[in-house]
Amino acid sequence: MTKDSQAGSQEPHLLDKPLDRVSLRLDFNPVEMGFAPLSLQVLVAGRPAPVDLYLPIADVKRRRVEMKLACPQGKTFLATWRERLVRRGQRQVFVSLDQGPALMEYFDRYSDEIVDAPGITLKQRAVVVRELAAINLRLMFASDLTPKALEGSVARAQQTVERLARESQILTNLTAVLRSDYSVYTHSINVCMLAMAFGRYLDLPPGRIHSLGMGGLLHDVGMAQLPAAILDKPGPLNAEERALVRRHPVLGHRMLLPVGAVPYDVLMIVRHHHENADGSGYPDRLTADKTPYLARLLRVVDAYDAMTSRRPYQDPRPPFEAAAILIQAMSDQFGQDIVPAFIRFLGSPAFSG
Ligand SMILES: [Fe+2]
Ligand SMILES: [Fe+2]
Prior knowledge:
mainly alpha; disordered N terminus; Hypothetical protein af1432; two-stranded antiparallel ribbon; single chain
């Protein structure tokens, strides 16, 4: 697999040539090659592409897949290209993580325009907000995590949470919006949206709902400091890897501590979202009465989303099965007070329309 960087100006444009369904559907992992998926819904048609846009194209004769430059940075991304790709079942293009800063600059300028595009449906808005948050997290994980890069990502996470708080209709019928294909990014956004919706369901004050949203987006950010091989491992982790992963709450807390924009409540969520009610959790083995309430709340949402997501080694559990497990583990892991309310929430319109 190679990274093809020149489309050639004489040739007909790749996106104007016939697109073969097979060539677009081959199963390989562009993420391992330094690419991140970008939903077509976050690209404004008729505007210059913010970065180089790539597509995986199969070379059947050579039996391999190559990332081909489909639209170079600065070239107008046409509405007809988007329609053709969507008709072919291709809902995303790929961008090189090296161009992350340019992409973020583009979103800083145009995200309002993208989310508020005329005729956009509520579900599409929710998807756009989700995708913008996903790309922000991906870049955050891929960056060198300098204080400045981290501050920028945290500021964008704030904007996501503020929008979700402002336009609370986005947080209804979440089953239609949540992604079940697990990655630390999609998981963090699911947890953010679920936790905010749950906080609203509980009638918590706006400041606490905001912290739940930020906590959701950032709770696993310490994973960014773990070897990528662990994050992307397609099977269950061994004991040594599990021990490393258990460091992520402390690593995340340490990373965010110097970032002024991160409130104390959020730092507590990041540090304590794996404490168990009976004191058997980590990192500080806090019992329920010593664990900050929002961290306990996020613990339940986090566990629920992990159970209902697809992993390479695990089919997603149906919601009722996940709920049954939450109930079983109520006294030792989650405490008695939050799980019943969460299960009522799952049956409410906030969750399933
Ligand atoms: Fe975690
Ligand atoms: Fe998590």
